[in-house]
Design goal:
alpha/beta; 7-stranded mixed beta sheet; 30 strands; 44% helix
Length: 907
């Protein structure tokens, strides 16, 4: 391929100079792909492949029009390809091309997706040259479409993975050490759907990266972040990567923030998945908590609301201010509707600012900036004119941006941008008359010449008595006078014929040629001048990127708060009483998602103190200070899991400042929500369901604190019964005695209900069921005390298990409860064998007596004693009796047991 010449040779030469997967090279009005690149894009985008000859060889070629590159580029990048773009420019000797940018998933600006498009970097802190033995990870996240830039730190792998899961980046840059950590990278691929890209090692060097971050954001700003070298190394690598790929958006990254601290609630990846915050367990967005409460009008508002859900707050002041705003918006329905109608006209200012700094914003983008800037004063007027809203924190929110700077930019754009500008920036008609005097003069002269041309046909008809005369223009003939053939012989002598058609002839005259030269010169002059003025205008908008981001953030905040208010008003949600204590007291709580599709049965929860009169009454006058650990029992499918998840969702909603689905709620702020729900089989990754269960439990026991909320839905079910009970028992004691977190623990191990009489903070609750005449109804209501039965057979019946199996199950269960013998049907004997199952030992106890009772144990023992023992077998028994299983190594023990088995078989 390197032997190719001309355009094809230039393509392969440029391709060799980049590490991109594909190259799109501009050739006139098309971006072309050659060779394997052409075949790849043909397969991916269904483009037609033709052939291009070069140096005696033929090469596949595929292309897309210059103006249509964006959707094709977006499709390729979303499929994980890194695409280099080479633009064409003029030289003295003709055309030349150079790579102007490399588009990757994390640096794609041309997106229609409302979600954030984060580029992430992760660095192992121990690899930092001056960090010594520092543990943990440094992370950075940048959204090039909005200019948002964040740094974070994780104490361990789980922390780092949780942050990656929360931000869900589209591209991840692993640092020098992390890129060789196969286990970590495997987890990253499992947790997030991101492209892993290798960036130059030098960009992660702590000193170089820190210098880059300080240069870009300012030393004082970076010092206030209070993060380690690893986080700064990640941030510096992102800055270098964005600059190297040519995205041109560094100017839109005006502020850097630390994404950590005690002000936020810990939500690990498992909890976010189990509570179905942004997608269901099946991976669908419909049915998630976010989709349920999302009534936002703007893409920025939706992103912010999702961020609140994934990053709840602990700041009581922040949450109370949000609550006040939601309360005011909930009560002022007409004003809220007006605000949402106004927000419907808003565009995504953060992304428009990023496009302006990149230089890709067109006149329509700037018009969108102008229209969105007009939304802010409209919102402020609505809030100021509504007493409920004026007295709420909403007034402070809309006053946060520099309103005067926003007003000035709006006025400038309103004066400049044409009412209906074209989608391209090089064809003129972008700017209004009156914006620039020189441009106005060119436009006036251009319009004058256009009027002369438009009236030329009528003047020629009148002057020379001609009929069927028209004046037009095309690329081949330029401007011409067209006369019908019947009248063509009567044209004046100064008409110069330039073409004969079937029914007409085309002519030109000296004055027409002169005016043609003038109008072409004016069009070129107008286009150049207008584009120059437009670029200046775009640069001015780019210089105001921080103002645009501030206004965009304000509009998003009002939008998110209005969304919460709308949902609260439409679904009878109430304002919870938040405080810094430990009380969790919810009256008639409901699951925020399930209630949308089901007639929901509300339930209460009372933990760590009944502070209100209402909760004291529900507690039958008993203080509930010791209710910190609820053992939840009840039948399968009765609603235990829903009940516990609804508690977690209500607490989470309260800590984003939302109203909650309940009749009343008093909620002490938590520092983390941890869940272990169900068993997700990961056998494909070599992890059994029990291993996943234990890993999740381990994370909770290591991470939760006394200020956390823990939700456990079955622990120990993935192993043998007694192992499972032992683990569940020990975990309960540890959570109760050591961690002391508020805990709801659903279990089928009824043995755990006995802990309520031994551990002071443990209490039993159960999901009630009503059984009449053999029919069972799950009441879905939670009551104090343990359940007395599991109703597993009834659930099997509901699930459609065949009637013979269900009926046989009932019979076996009845005999087990009465400790009667059970016939083991289907054995090798022609007669059924009766046996008694010892529930305590989990074993069958020999053949039953003829009357169905237990066998005569003494007689069986006597028969065994009377039977002579083979000497060889006796020797085996003696060796077995002398074997010390506690001190014998496992492998040696297995070997000896195998030897004893062999000797028994031979005896």
């Amino acid at each position: 391929m390197t032997e190719a010449t001309g355009i094809v040779g230039e393509f392969f030469s440029l391709k060799e100079g980049t590490d991109a997967d594909l190259l799109a090279m501009q050739c006139g009005d098309f971006y072309e792909f050659f060779g394997e690149d052409a075949e790849t894009v043909s397969d991916e985008l269904d483009l037609k492949v033709s052939q291009k000859s070069s140096h005696g060889s033929s090469y596949p070629m595929a292309g897309v029009p210059v103006n249509d590159l964006t959707p094709y580029l977006k499709a390729l990048v979303e499929r994980g390809y890194r695409v280099a773009v080479a633009d064409q420019y003029e030289t003295d000797s003709g055309h030349a091309r150079e790579v102007v940018r490399v588009v990757t998933p994390g640096t794609l600006l041309e997106t229609t997706d409302a979600d954030a498009q984060y580029l992430a970097a992760i660095v192992d802190a121990s690899s930092s040259s001056s960090a010594g033995s520092a543990a943990g990870y440094g992370l950075a996240f940048a959204d090039v479409t909005t200019g948002r830039f964040l740094v974070a730190e994780g104490e361990d792998v789980d922390d780092a993975l949780t942050e990656l899961y929360r931000f869900d980046p589209v591209e991840v840059l692993p640092g020098p050490e992390t890129r060789t950590d196969d286990e970590l990278l495997t987890h990253v691929r499992e947790r997030v759907d991101a492209t892993l890209s290798l960036h130059e090692t030098e960009s992660f060097a702590p000193k170089r990266a820190t210098h880059a971050v300080r240069e870009h954001f300012g030393s004082e700003t970076v010092d206030r972040l209070a993060v380690g070298e690893a986080a700064l190394a990640a941030a510096g690598a992102i800055l270098a990567y964005v600059e190297e790929t040519g995205a041109g958006v560094l100017a839109s990254m005006t502020r850097i923030q630390s994404h950590q601290g005690d002000d936020h609630v810990t939500l690990d990846a498992t909890t976010q998945r189990n509570l179905e915050l942004t997608e269901t367990m099946q991976g669908d967005t419909d049915g998630s908590l976010f989709t349920t409460i999302d009534h936002t009008e703007t893409s920025a508002g939706g992103r912010l609301l999702k961020e609140w859900l994934q990053r709840p707050r602990r700041s009581l002041e922040t949450l109370e201010r949000r609550q006040e705003s939601v309360a005011a918006l909930s009560s002022a329905a007409l004003a809220r509707d007006q605000i949402q109608d106004t927000l419907d006209d808003a565009y995504d200012l953060a992304r428009l600012a990023s496009k302006a700094t990149h230089g890709s914003a067109d006149a329509r983008d700037l018009q969108a900036v102008q229209e969105t800037l007009a939304v802010l004063p409209a919102l402020a007027d609505t809030i100021a004119s509504t007493p409920e809203l004026a007295d709420a924190p909403l007034s402070d929110i809309v006053d946060q941006p520099d309103r005067e700077a926003a007003r000035e930019l709006h006025a400038t754009l309103e004066e400049a941008i044409a009412e209906d500008p074209p989608s391209t920036v090089t064809q003129g008609e972008l700017l209004q008359r009156g914006y620039d005097e020189e441009l106005d003069e060119v436009i006036d002269r251009h319009e004058e010449v256009k009027r002369w041309l438009e009236t030329l046909a009528d003047r020629e008809k009148q002057a020379h008595g001609l009929s069927h005369v028209s004046v037009d223009r095309n690329k081949t003939d330029g401007y011409y006078i067209q006369v019908g053939k019947s009248a063509a012989d009567g044209v004046p002598d100064h008409y110069e014929e330039i073409k004969t058609l079937k029914n007409s002839k085309r002519f030109t005259i000296d004055e027409l040629e002169e005016r043609e030269r003038e109008i072409l010169r004016l069009e070129e002059q107008r286009g150049e001048l207008e584009y120059e003025l437009f670029e200046e205008l775009r640069e001015e908008v780019a210089s105001r990127a921080e103002t645009l981001q501030d206004v965009g953030r304000t509009l998003a905040t009002v939008d998110a708060l209005s969304s919460l208010a709308t949902h609260a008003a439409e679904n009878r949600w109430i304002k919870p009483d938040l405080h810094a204590g430990n009380v969790l007291d919810i009256e008639q709580g409901r699951h925020p998602v399930v209630e949308q599709t089901t007639e929901f049965v509300p339930n209460d929860v009372r933990m760590d103190g009944a502070a209100t009169a209402a909760s004291q009454e529900r507690a039958d006058g008993r203080a509930s200070d010791g209710r910190g650990f609820l053992v939840v029992t009840g039948p399968n499918m009765s609603g235990k899991s829903t009940y516990m998840r609804q508690v977690a969702c209500i607490v989470l909603l309260a800590q984003i400042g939302s109203f909650v689905p309940a009749k009343a709620a008093e909620i002490g702020l938590v520092d983390g929500i941890f869940t272990r729900v169900g068993a997700l089989d990961e056998l494909a990754q070599g992890r059994s369901t029990f291993m996943v269960e234990m890993s999740e439990l381990s994370n909770i026991l290591h991470t939760a604190t006394e200020e956390s909320l823990v939700i456990l839905d079955e622990v120990g079910r993935g192993t043998a019964t007694y192992d499972g009970i032992s683990i569940a028992w020990a975990a309960t004691e540890y959570l109760h005695n050591e961690i002391q977190a508020k805990t709801l623990f659903a279990t089928h191990y009824h043995e755990l209900t006995g802990l309520a009489s031994r551990l002071p903070r443990v209490a039993n609750v159960h999901i009630a069921a009503d059984e009449r005449d053999g029919d069972v109804t799950f009441l879905r209501s939670v009551r104090d005390g343990p359940t007395d039965r599991s109703y597993g057979i009834h659930v099997a019946d509901l699930a459609g298990v065949p009637d013979p199996v269900v009926d046989r199950s009932r019979d076996v269960l009845e005999r087990l409860r009465e400790e009667k013998a059970i016939e083991a049907k289907g054995g090798s004997s022609s007669e059924p064998v009766q046996t008694v199952f010892d529930v305590s030992s989990g074993q069958f106890r020999g053949p039953a007596n003829a009357d169905g009772g237990e066998p005569d144990r003494q007689q069986a023992d006597k028969d065994e004693r009377d039977e002579p023992i083979d000497p060889d077998a006796k020797a085996v028994l003696e060796d077995l009796e002398s074997l010390d299983v506690n001190t014998t190594p496992p492998i040696e023990l297995m070997s000896k047991v195998q030897d004893l088995q062999r000797r028994l078989e031979d005896s």
